Amino acid sequence: MKKIFTKQVREVQDEIARQFSRMVPFLLVWVLGLSPLLSQAQDKAVTGVILSSEDKSALPGVTVVLRSSTVGTTTDADGKYAINVNGNNSVLVFSAVGFVTQEVTVGSRSKVDITMAVDLKTLNELVVVGYGTQKKSQLTGAISSVSAREIGELPVTNARQALQGRAAGVDVNQAGSKPGSAPQIRIRGRRSFNASNDPLFVVDGIPLSGGIDDINPNDIASMEVLKDASSTAIYGSRGANGVVIVTTKRGTAGKTTVSFDTYGGINQSLGRIDVMDGPQFAEYKRESRRAVGNYTNDDALFEPIELESIGLGRSTDYPSTLLRTGSIQSHQVSVSGGTEKTVFNISGNFFKDKGVVKNQDFTRYTFRINLDHKINDKLKVGTSTFAVYGERNGENFNPLGGALSENPLGVPYDADGNLIFLPTQDGLRTNPLSEIVPGAIIDQRKNYRIFNSIYGEWTILKGLKYRFNFGPDFDIDRYGRFFAPETNARRGAPAAGSVANQLRFNYTVENILTYTKQFNQVHNLNVTALQSYQKDDYQTSGINVTGIPATTQQFYNLGSASQVSGVGTALTQWALLSYMARVNYDYKEKYLLTATLRADGSSRFGANNKFGYFPSVAVGWNISSESFLQNARWLDMAKLRMSYGSTGNQAINPYQTQPLLERTSYAWDENAAFGYRPGTIGNPDLRWESSATANAGLDFSFFSGRISGALEYYVTNTTDLLAPQPLPNSTGFSGYTTNIGQTKNSGLEISLSTVNINKGGFRWNTDLMFTRNREEIISLANGKIDDVSAGRFIGEPLSVVFDYKKLGIWQTNEVDEAARFQSKVGEIKIQDFNGDGIINGDDRQILGSAVPNFVAGLTNRFEYKGFDLSFFIYARAGQFITSNFHQGNNSLAGRYNNLDIDYWTPNNPTNEFPRPNVNQESPRYGSTLRYFDGSFLKVRNINIGYNVPTNIAAKLGMTSLRVFSSIQQPFIFSEYRTKYKGIDPEVELDNGNSNGNQGINSDLAPATKIITFGLNARF
Amino acid sequence: MKFKIKSSKVLQTGAIVASLFFGQSCNLAVLDEQVVSGIGNNYLNTTSGFNDGVNAVYSTLREWYGTERGNNFTIFGTDTYQNGADGSHKFINTYDGGLDARSSHVREVWDLLYQGINAANAVIDRSANVTGISDVLKKQRIAEVKFLRAHYYFNLTQIFGGVDLRLTETVAPTKVATRATIPQMYTAIIKDLEESIPDLENRARSGDYGRVTRPAAEHLLARVYLTKATSAAKATDDYAKAETLAKSVINNYGIKLTSDYALVHKEGNEKNEEVIFSVQYTGNPLTNGGGNNSHVFFLMEYDNMPGMQRDIANGRPFKRYKPTLYTLNQVFVNRTDDSRYYKTFKDVYYSNKPGKYNTNYDKSKASITLALGDTSIFDPGYEMPAVERAKRPYQVLTPSMYDERRFPALRKHIDGARADRTQFSGTRDYIAFRLAESYLIMAEAQFKQGKIADAVGAINVVRRRAAWPGKQAAMEITSADLTMNFIMEERERELLGEQMRWFDLNRWGVLVERVKLYNPQAAPNIKDFHTLRPLPQNQLDRVEGGVSAFPQNPGY
Questions:
Q1: In chain A, which end has fewer C-beta atoms inside a 10 angstrom radius, N or C?
Q2: Is the CA virtual torsion B44, B46, B52, B53 positive or negative?
Q3: How near does any CA of chain B get to the CA of A43, in Å?
Q4: pLDDT tens column, A85-129
Q5: A427 and B309: CB-CB below 8 Å?
Q6: What pLDDT was estimated at residue A106?
């Protein structure tokens, strides 16, 4: 919660204070030395000391600015400052986070000492809300914030990662470590079957269409997660899955600051999937034949190279040949500053993540300009613009699965050191090393994006403002792939290549009127009215060819290929037209009311259902402002909030209201005979999916901020779910999109921050985040009746694991019983769930769900004399995971290499895994071998930092210097990892829109431990 | 003051820009959806839309002929083929319960054929309003579509029994569906075919090669009557009608048997004089769809053998279908007069990976040394003695060495015209109806009517063509030879691996009996109810009223 933000800012400030106390002499020299240069226009020197009203201690880091000028300074460690002013009428403005800002006219004084009042009860800091900001004390909605500091602590590629474990109610999951891949976010669970469950991202006021993944995390000043209907209703149509508002850093008037932030480090795989070595493989292959009475001797079973390896005790470890130690680096230069009229923030960043799997890397260059200019007292304009160029290699380059399956008795190189393309006689198993021959496989995405948020603001009258926002977003994406003949994809066939281009232009235009007025000094009113229009135009084109003449051409001359195997272009457009009004009212900041109404018209719905109306209302009560608590010194703040409202979801593909044709191909002899036939049946009645959320929250702060936090409880009912409703296929259609059923999410969120010790320069504070969300299907297409074919069950989460239950392995003394179930000894024993004596579809049962029981995050920070140490623990418990390689790399057929598992033999009567059998593609009921409890506890990162004493920094020409080191994900504690040879149980909750359980597969780049070193320098 | 003027200009400009956007966005028409890269449904009412609709109905043929599902449903679980080593659909062969209502093949066949049926319904329903096309041509096109709709329903009926008989386009979402009776199915199928015959082109081949012409419809209708004759819809004149139709196909269009049996399925000779109707596949991936996949299923694992590696000409061996001993030892027992064993099965593989190798199955010698193009594997089709094998510089694969990986591979579908050795989408037309079958249909219809001599005559036409040179007379049979059993075997000698056997066995009512006799993998499991496949669970779940409204076939 926002409280955390405040405290952290204060911590930073304290830190600075301690540093300053050690560098006073240097600072004075520096200030005195420089000030003549800076102050040629001024004529009078003023000095002073600033103390805190709380304990009369000196306040370092207070900003002192000469009003209506660019002249400014900050106080040193002893709270002292010196500034030149131009006359007795000069006004000095003193400000510091957490304190009440003061303005003092200098008069004839040359020494101005002041005492600053602690700004605890008023909690004046602003929180970014939809279409504006609000004082925290006046908030009525459920909002979680993550600050720049927390984002900066993790060397993350992607802003989404920074939310993991930091914001209550936000479930962030990343599977594996593939460079450039983005984690999945679910806010307060899932509610929709088909429509997207992704939250809406709003960057500098503009709702994104193309994803947040291009944003450079170092540019972010704060992220606010809007969770309840009261906060999200203002985004109406798209608020149902929560809203993440990203605000980028802007300049402040005063001295120009140049910052250099850099870090670099290494990635190491946290493990690899354990498959059999040569001797184990040989024995397993023999056993697969013994199982069918087919094993005579090795000579008959093995091919020459295998026999040679068996004789030599030789074994090839293919997976290891594909792995390496990766690296990560980020370098950023920012310049920020400005005058009272114009402020700016410019930054440039280079980021590179070289993955632990060869040929996988991601490079990104970003450039940002944030600029605000006051034309006069009434008019203001500004822009935030960023440009990004990203290059990602290996997005779909997944060689690990093949390497895990490769026969370890083969050898990759011949006597001359040349790669052997087919190391064994198995025609499907090409040499995994041929995949990483330079130039053999190219899988490259290039992304160019220019995103703008441009505004003009006109103060029409006092309290009445008009703002115009324009947000054009250009996104160009080129994805090229190439496969040389000697790769597994081609297996000797001519080279193949493809190029896919995506061109998106999205723009948002908004007209916003706000009116703020206080009546009789007790009634505060704020009214916001909005009209907005967003349009999205998305074009794709692509070509696939085979028979590229020279491998050096890669995918850059597809026209020269002998065969075109696919060509396509497409255009998708949608538009959204919205009107919104919001009223915020409070009485003495004690009783708060927020009411919102938004109307959204979406092009995606039927002619009569284009518009959806989303109202919400919220009330808040600042209990601590009541007179009977005025004297309760232990209580800083307590506020009770209640909200109820509805939000919508339109996130289905466009054109679903219309019956469309689909193309078919046929030929008359060799002449093309393309055709068209009914493809979709369309649903002109399609309408908005809507979610009604009731939220109750309590914000609190005790003992001068020693304990603070928030509690939230909510219930969300989603109705008119946009879902693919199946039709009997004999109609010619498999289904259509319609509005059916109801789901419910309810949950509890706890955010708690404590300052455990703050004594003698030592400070220890803790932030705890806990989330529990329960997903539940209330009704489906046919009311309260399970839809078994879609795997949806009333009262269960949106997706569950529904399968047979493995009891063990049929043992030698169970021959007859096994036979009754058409099974044999050594095969998987399945529970006869309904006890009817046969195993069929009716014996499947709900085994578990990917939805965790709870998610928790715990951050501990220790600070002492310029040193700081923090570590962040993240836990997710009770979720079921589907480990696909426990099925895919576990076929136990004696052909491909297999997981090194405890399989059954007559001499090894285990109940873990069945007996290898050459006559099977995969074990019967093999799908039951892949389900595991995915609970885990991770030490997500450990950070150590040191703020170099300013005197030393100054010698280096810096105003401040911080050096730090971090270890990301040093430890994972999980049964899946320790007992079942998995690497990392963290996996995305679902498969994007389809809600299927997202599995862990062998191709996933393994999870990594990342060790980085870096520094932040300010000049 | 100066500044104020300036700012009001800025303000004016800003207001104009804002009102432009505001004005634009206030117009509710911005929310109208315009389909640009897709095509709206009304296109089917236009002249070119009508033609494209007809083409689309044809494309469904490719969902059955030459696909894995089309093959698995007709080749597996019969008396002539059992499963080889690989593949995840062995349960279709073994009848061990794996083929249930949730199986992918069942669902796919159902869904895909019904897509074709709905497309056919759409074309027929809308044709009345289509202009810009001559009445003759329009009638001809509708006749083609009716043939196709009848074909799809005939397949569904043979696979599932009575199904949801829909003869009009689905224009609004509905969950109402019922199962028609077998007689209702045949009435609809026969009506479509009878209506189509007079309007179809009266010649063997259309100018657009691959379009349905009159003999194709007559051939199919003959097959329909032959099948109906043993169904719940049987009528006394079914065989007579089948005979008449088959006779018309044989006599009226100049279609004739190829001179040599080997020419029927010779690669590159798909457009031969015997073809009545073939499903079109091409060498161009843009028009070939999923391609003809039959080339992979019938092949043995030659590519792991000493001296061999996978290449285009020998094919990509999936080793799915292994001929039963019954096929090898009884159906194709006569190899001295009848050339069809050798012309059906591949007997030799030439080395494409020369070198010295240890032998692995023919242990009559310890090793072999092969040059490029040397014989590497020879399958003589009989148990060549070790002494004889030892003289040969290659490995000899004899019947006692056959297993699920090594067995006689069917030549008929091998496709060396694919672009590379992994290409799954084959290029060869799938010959669905050919004249030899017309003779066999006629013979069977005549036999059932007691016209034994006529039947013998028809069969002998087919047998004479199959003879080794000079053995024509020896191939001829007499009335005394002709039994139903003989017809059953003769059909397979001629038509092995051509997506018909499972239907044939069901037509004769001998599926269970013959599978128990000749298919050892399936024998312990097959039950009477296996003469129909399970209806897909999806259909049952989705129909309003569930299984009570749309009952599952018994046994599933």
A1: C
A2: positive
A3: 29
A4: 877 778 888 877 666 777 888 888 888 888 877 654 434 567 778
A5: yes
A6: 83
Q: Largest alpha-carbon pair distance within chain B?
A: 122
Classify B455 as helix, strand or coil.
helix
Q: Identify which of B49, B164, B166 has the shortest CB distance to residue A676.
A: B49
A53-62, A640-649, A1003-1012, B57-66 — which is least confidently predicted? Answer: A53-62
d(CA B538, CA A696): 43
- Give which of A299, A303, A298, A304 is closest to A286, Cα–Cα: A298
Query: Nearest residue of B to residue A738 by CA position?
Result: B173
3-state SS assignment for residue A9: helix
**Nearest 5°: phi and psi at A220?**
-85, 130
| 3-state DSSP helix/strand/coil % of chain B, to nearest 5 | 50, 10, 45
CB within 8 Å: B21 and A511: yes
Contacting residues for B201 by C-beta, under 8 A, at least 6 apart: B140, B211, B213, B214
How is residue B473 written in tokens?
């007379």
Question: pTM of the entire structure?
Answer: 0.80
Pairwise CB contact (< 8 Å): B172 & A681: yes
And the tokens for A618?
């919220």
Q: Nearest-5° angle of CA A266, CA A269, CA A272?
A: 165
Average pLDDT, stretch A520-539? 92
**Can you give the three-state secondary structure of A198-248, one letter per residue?**
CCEEEECCEECCCCCCCCCHHHEEEEEEECCHHHHHHHHHHCCCCEEEEEE
CA-based torsion, B83, B84, B85, B89: positive or negative: negative
Phi, psi of B380 (to 5 degrees): -75, -15
CA atoms of B291 and B116, how far apart (whole Å) = 17
Query: Complex ipTM, two decimals?
Result: 0.93
Cα gap A561→A564, rounded to integer Å = 7
Residues A781/A727, Cβ–Cβ less than 8 Å: no
| Whole-number Cα distances in Å, A652 to A194, A605, A687, A771, B38 | 7, 10, 11, 28, 17
Cβ neighbourhood burial of B155 (10 Å; 0-12, 13-18, 19+):
middle
Q: Where does residue A256 fall: left (phi above 0), alpha (psi -120 to 50 degrees), or beta otherwise? A: beta
The residue type of A175 is: A
Q: Measuring CA to CA, how many Å separate A315 from each of A319, A336, A410, A548? A: 12, 59, 8, 36
B411 neighbors B430 (Cβ within 8 angstroms): no
Burial of B29 (0-12, 13-18, 19+ CB in 10 A): exposed
Q: What is the CA radius of gyration of chain B?
A: 28
Q: Per-residue pLDDT tens for A324-348?
A: 999 999 999 999 988 889 999 999 9
Residues of A in contact with B271 (CB under 8 A): 669
CA distance A720 to A743: 9
Tokens of B438: 């017309």
In angstroms, what CA-CA distances link A338 with A257, A371, A547, A1005?
10, 9, 58, 45
Subunit contact A493:B422, Cβ cutoff 8 A: yes
Count CB neighbours of A915 within 10 A. Answer: 24
Q: What is the DSSP letter of A495?
A: P
The amino acid occupying position A347 is: S
Predicted confidence (pLDDT) at residue A5 exceeds the cutoff of 80: no
Chain B residues whose beta carbon lies within 8 Å of the beta carbon of residue A785: none
Helix (H) or strand (E) holding B52: helix B47-59
Q: Residue B23 has which token pair?
A: 């004005």
Instruction: Say how far apart CA A96 and CA A101 lie, in whole Å.
Output: 7
Length of chain A: 1019
Q: What is the DSSP letter of B357?
A: E
For residue A695, what is the enclosing H or E element? strand A689-702
**Three-state DSSP class for B89?**
coil
